Amino acid sequence: MSPAAPPPPLRQKKRRIAIMTSGGDSPGMNPAIRAVVRMGIDKGCDVYGVYEGYEGLVQGGDLIRQFQWSEVRGWLSEGGTLIGTARCMAFYERAGRLKAAKNMVLHGIDALIICGGDGSLTGADKFRSEWPDLVQELVDTKQLTAEQTKPYKHLNIVGLVGSIDNDMSGTDATIGCFSALGRICEMVDYIEATASSHSRAFVIEVMGRHCGWLALMAGVATGADFIFIPEKPRPEKWREEMCAVVAHHRQNGKRKTIVIVAEGAYDQEGNKITPEMIKDLLADKEGLALDTRITTLGHVQRGGSACAYDRYLGTLQGVEAVRAVLDATPDTPSPFIAVNENKITRKPLMQAVLDTKEVANAIAAKDFDRAMSLRDTEFSDMYNSYRTTTSTAIDNSVHLPPKKRMRIAIIHVGAPAGGVNPATRAAVAYCLTRGHTPLAIHNGFAGFARHHGDKPDGAVREFDWLEVDNWANKGGSEIGMNRETPVESGMELIASLFKLYKFDGLFIIGGFEAFQSLSQLRKAREQYSSLCIPMTLLPATISNNVPGTEYSIGSDTCLNELMAYCDKVKQSASASRRRVFVIETQGGRSGYIATLAGLAVGAVAVYTPEEGISIAMLAADIEHLRKVFAGDSGQSRAGRLILVNEKASKVYSAKLIADMIREEAHERFESRDSIPGHVQQGGVPSPMDRTRAVRLAIKCIEHLEQFEDRSDSAILSNPQSATVIGIKGASVVFSPMKEVEENETDWPNRRPNHEFWLELKGIVDTLSGRPDVPRPESPLVGWKAKDKKRGLS
Ligand code: ADP
């Protein structure tokens, strides 16, 4: 056999990286491809797309094509995968992998980034381990010459986990799982309305053959009555257990029943539990006899544009995959890119694949505790959260002894954010399960101070579970929210009210004002004994500017709203083509939501208060836009976006920037300003905000519970008695307020000293092709009171 044409590709000057999607498609794959293509090109590589998964690699030819920068424009908002995916039987065989190796060498590709599920990544790892043998065989069988293969001694593989099931060990989330969860929650929310109207029961089947993540998280996010997941098969008596829970909820006055079942649900004996079995039970069981329907969600779960988190995850992981390729040496084991809480990490690919298989093995061997332990900590946390929030008041065995039970006050401070109500619901449920008394303080400290004598219960009321049970998907704040801090309300009065209502613990949910409030209460403890109780804050604000955490609940809901708004605005420009929109975002003095939204929609530039805006910067960006439009031959009709945080500059407003662009464009293109305003608070909270709210709120009450000794001296001497819960890097931590106030807070600018996302701004710029524009000399430091009077703050 003669060596194959075309002529021998010797080691290219530029590295050639290929990106491939394989296995089941998932939302977020296109953002990942876009990131790999653009980051790769930016780093001086040629980037190729392998179409139709491993089939493309085996067949080669036109299924392996080079990408140009502009070809991935607009891919952030596209669902599925635009380079196709397929199951490929040939790749299971060595002969197929031999062909694939030959095609890789012929195209000069020495690194492969694969976005797929555990099957695809197993195949990838096998391919890499066989690579030297495959290359040798190609030479021995004279399909390629030794000369041709010389530069390809090693193959670099990097895995990106694209899957809606979130079934990969070692990572908290896979690209696509939160979009699928979003779709499920949206559907369950719709179904709930009709279930409630007709007092019906619905059994909803969701995807997940070996992994119950979607069913579990949907159960937590929607407050479902009962769930069935593969990792926690029900004991033989599941029928009685489920009927008892449903009957109990019905007796409490609930008009709807929602049961969520994963495809792979079994009982402990290995018998499949089907939606039909559940339906028959609910419909026929004496005492229940519920009008019951089954809804199988099916492929809608895969569909549509990715949610903000999946665009973020796909993008950042795509960027990290390119970096991993460039860092790799022949001795580095193949990595896959994971995310742990808030941190993008690299981990050994094969170990994760083995661990994932181990879960399936453990389930098959009926070792369910092991299956559960092999999932990440969030999974078991969530399972416990789910149990807590659904079995309320049924299980008296977990009540604490009377002397350990507490009167826990819950207050919302600041502006509404998605997740505040679900967090409150979870905290109340946990309190009831443990025998505590959860008390609502209505309308923040202002309401507390002013209305304590108005009604028989004043501004403080015991929560009514039947009412609270409906808050799992409610936006806003059901108990009322206010920005006033205790000092503004009058600390002496507030302290006297704490005494009057005999609070043993305080749970605050809110944004920067809530942080300020807790700081004031902590400092006033020296003076007022009634304030010597454990207090903790769950950060909740769309701005994500609370020190002590990298994530505030509500910020994800806001990002999704902002992203949907930007997508629409971008598309609206398709008729006229040449249009730039300058969109003003909220966010206070933190550029978080502007930057993250910029990442999710592909903004040309993002202006933040941290960086500021200067005339030189604007001029450079306008010049860049001019070039972009001059070179645009109509590949994508959608408009371009610039995002400006509301406080990025005192002078350059979105309108002024849009006017400047229009003036300078000399009719070569147009510009418009646009302000989404309070739309950004969002309607229904996103599933991420809902589920994290539940998990973190329960942790907060557990934390308060630890303070058995609530003497003034014990509280005063323990820094953990006033804390803020937060996600920091890969962990969930309670940070002592004193330390956060003193070391982590930029008080004049009302944001953390160190904002973890600042480095993401560079990625937004790189991926949008923004040149290295001149940066402002110095950003604004603190908006002063006089600015407020002048209407500037
Ligand atoms: P997923 O990646 O979503 O888990 P599959 O298990 O169907 O989906 O795998 C996708 C493709 O990856 C398969 O069609 C096959 O080409 C390849 N693949 C999967 N497992 C292996 C394996 N053990 N060896 C070689 N190739 C594999």
CATH architecture of the largest domain: 3-Layer(aba) Sandwich
Globular, elongated, flat, extended or rod-shaped: what is the shape? globular
Beta fraction of the residues?
15-25%
Report the CATH C-level class of the largest domain.
Answer: Alpha Beta
Give the terminus-to-terminus CA distance: 76 Å
**Largest β-sheet summary:** 7 strands, mixed
Unreliable residue runs: 1-5, 7-11, 785-793
What topology, given as strand order, has the largest sheet?
3-2-1-4-5-10-11
The unique ligands bound to this protein are: adenosine-5'-diphosphate
User: Averaging pLDDT over every residue, what do you get?
Assistant: 91
Which class best fits the helix and strand makeup? alpha/beta
Helix content: 40-55%
Number of domains: 4
Radius of gyration from the alpha-carbon trace, in angstroms = 28 Å
Count of helix runs: 28
Total beta strand runs: 24
CATH topology description of the largest domain: Rossmann fold
